């Protein structure tokens, strides 16, 4: 069997898929328009948490597998991953989340909550420092013998016949590359501030979205989730909106020292597309449309790519 695979895309989805394929014995090359630090994956906050992705029965399974792998990776200090005490707040009573059994130390808290919140989930999850983690993934990819080239792919049929299989991990650009009208941007804006606290605080309801994510040398605060908005420039309105929401949880944030504002476009889709398609007689496996959960679903999806390719 010819074992040459081309992975298109060098974000978290492309790199994780490429690593799992290399570990399974495939000869893997990545072609990507950009690599870290110029991908959407670099902008992710990033925490393990299923957000703006579907369908839930699949994202729960992919997410659970990814949680376990990211947890194992916390022992490697070069990977930039930490388990962090997390509090998620709600303004109404909540059912158990579908991912409750995935995370460690899940508990409910109803007393001494900030602002007008009435319920809180307390649990342990990972904070993944993407600039460090993407570097770690790239090192792992190269160590396993992966090859890469900076190259834009405009059509699957233009890919050299040397590659018998293509794995498409082009995120938001898949809309154009695959003529897929189900793909749309979900604009996010975040603010890097000087470090303040060591725990993570979240309000994951889109209208009131607020996240306060501790990292080793800074904190990320967010955010917004604007469907259909292609603007990649930061706006002062969004900055003020984010600070206002986050300071309802941690009041000290309104006086925090701001380092920079960053914008990224999440690759939204009605549901994650992870499936095989035959294009001009060649197998193309798609892995895109992870919305606000690309990091959270990355290893689970990558392992499924290996299963599909071996079918
Ligand atoms: C503000 C913000 C916060 C977020 N926070 C989190 C979080 O906390 N947790 C979480 O799990 N997720 C989070 N996300 C979502 C996460 O960033 C995405 O789901 C994830 O980055 C998608 O990864 P990807 O590899 O599919 O896409 P990308 O990172 O966009 O990578 C796509 C790659 O494909 C390449 N490419 C595109 N078109 C072509 C082409 N035609 N030819 C060749 N190469 C091409 C690009 O150059 C790039 O390398 C966040 C996103 C944003 C914007």
Radius of gyration: 19 Å
Q: How many angstroms does the end-to-end distance come to?
A: 13 Å
Q: What is the architecture at the second tier of CATH?
A: 3-Layer(aba) Sandwich
List each distinct ligand once: flavin-adenine dinucleotide
Q: What fold name stands as the CATH topology?
A: Rossmann fold
Low-confidence stretches: none
What percent strand?
25-35%
- CATH H-level superfamily: NAD(P)-binding Rossmann-like Domain
Order of helices and strands: EHEHHEEEHEEHEEEEEHEEEH
Helix content: 25-40%
Major sheet attributes? 9 strands, mixed
Structural class: alpha/beta
Average pLDDT for all residues: 97
For the secondary structure, the number of strands is 15
Task: Give the tally of structural domains.
Answer: 1
CATH class: Alpha Beta
**Number of H- or I-type helical stretches:** 7
Shape descriptor: globular
GO molecular function: D-amino-acid oxidase activity; FAD binding
Protein name: FAD dependent oxidoreductase domain-containing protein
InterPro entries: D-amino_acid_oxidase_CS, DAO, FAD-dep_OxRdtase
Cofactor: FAD
What does this structure look like?
- The chain is of the alpha/beta class and 311 residues long.
- It has one domain (4-309): Rossmann fold.
- 26% of the residues lie in helices and 31% in strands.
- It has helices spanning 12-23, 40-43, 56-73, 130-143, 174-177, 236-247, 294-309; strands at residues 4-8, 27-32, 81-90, 104-109, 119-128, 147-150, 165-168, 183-193, 200-203, 210-214, 219-222, 226-227, 258-269, 273-279, 282-288.
- Strands 3, 4, 5, 8, 9, 10, 11, 12 and 13 form a nine-stranded mixed β-sheet that branches.
- The longest helix is centred in the first third of the chain and has 18 residues, at 56-73.
- The chain is globular, with a radius of gyration of 19 Å.
- The model has no long low-confidence stretch (mean pLDDT 97).
- Bound molecules: flavin-adenine dinucleotide.
- The site of flavin-adenine dinucleotide has 42 residues, from helix 1, strand 2, helix 2, strand 8 and strand 13.
- Flavin-adenine dinucleotide (FAD) binds at residues 8-14, 31-34, 39-41, 43-47, 152-153, 169-173, 177, 188, 190, 222-223, 264, 266-267, 288, 290-296.
